[in-house]
């Protein structure tokens, strides 16, 4: 078992979720309650990672994070290092890749919030941000938790985008899924079996958790 790769996967997933929660929570507001046509565009853009082939997404992320891009150039001028094939670049790529996995359960839960409660808060003088943060979001906590768990789990298992943007650098960008790929290529089937079993057990635990949360949400409604 490549425990260094496992630890790097956990660190990457944890940091990804820490950054994703505030960004995704802000984006969920217009997606759940917006009425303009811009909401449809935003929904399509944030859902793209679900349907794009990982190679296509990885290619555009390399272009967006590369040294010739404004972001990559600014990062290199600021830190003296490149974003592509580094942990920091991989973290940014994971934010984009995991965004729909966080947003979809949260937006669905927000859509189920009783609008009369939101209208009552508005009549009491609360403004839209306050209504969202103090009324809608607490009522949709199961969706928030489901999105957090799903995005964490997807970050652990992501392969294609990780390989394209991060490469396979031990201790820097080699995650558990990349280590498994290496073990298979090196005919270390016993090691590959252990890594695959670990990822399988983790995925089953995550799916069981989210299924339980959905069942509790249905019972509550």
TrEMBL record:
<keyword id="KW-0813">Transport</keyword>
<feature type="transmembrane region" description="Helical">
    <location>
        <begin position="131"/>
        <end position="153"/>
    </location>
</feature>
<dbReference type="InterPro" id="IPR000515">
    <property type="entry name" value="MetI-like"/>
</dbReference>
<feature type="transmembrane region" description="Helical">
    <location>
        <begin position="40"/>
        <end position="63"/>
    </location>
</feature>
<keyword id="KW-0812">Transmembrane</keyword>
<comment type="similarity">
    <text>Belongs to the binding-protein-dependent transport system permease family. CysTW subfamily.</text>
</comment>
<dbReference type="InterPro" id="IPR011867">
    <property type="entry name" value="ModB_ABC"/>
</dbReference>
<keyword id="KW-0500">Molybdenum</keyword>
<dbReference type="GO" id="GO:0015098">
    <property type="term" value="F:molybdate ion transmembrane transporter activity"/>
</dbReference>
<feature type="transmembrane region" description="Helical">
    <location>
        <begin position="12"/>
        <end position="33"/>
    </location>
</feature>
<comment type="function">
    <text>Part of the binding-protein-dependent transport system for molybdenum; probably responsible for the translocation of the substrate across the membrane.</text>
</comment>
<feature type="transmembrane region" description="Helical">
    <location>
        <begin position="195"/>
        <end position="213"/>
    </location>
</feature>
<dbReference type="InterPro" id="IPR035906">
    <property type="entry name" value="MetI-like_sf"/>
</dbReference>
<keyword id="KW-1003">Cell membrane</keyword>
<protein>
    <recommendedName>
        <fullName>Molybdenum transport system permease</fullName>
    </recommendedName>
</protein>
<dbReference type="Pfam" id="PF00528">
    <property type="entry name" value="BPD_transp_1"/>
</dbReference>
<keyword id="KW-0472">Membrane</keyword>
<keyword id="KW-1133">Transmembrane helix</keyword>
<feature type="domain" description="ABC transmembrane type-1">
    <location>
        <begin position="6"/>
        <end position="208"/>
    </location>
</feature>
<feature type="transmembrane region" description="Helical">
    <location>
        <begin position="83"/>
        <end position="110"/>
    </location>
</feature>
<dbReference type="GO" id="GO:0005886">
    <property type="term" value="C:plasma membrane"/>
</dbReference>
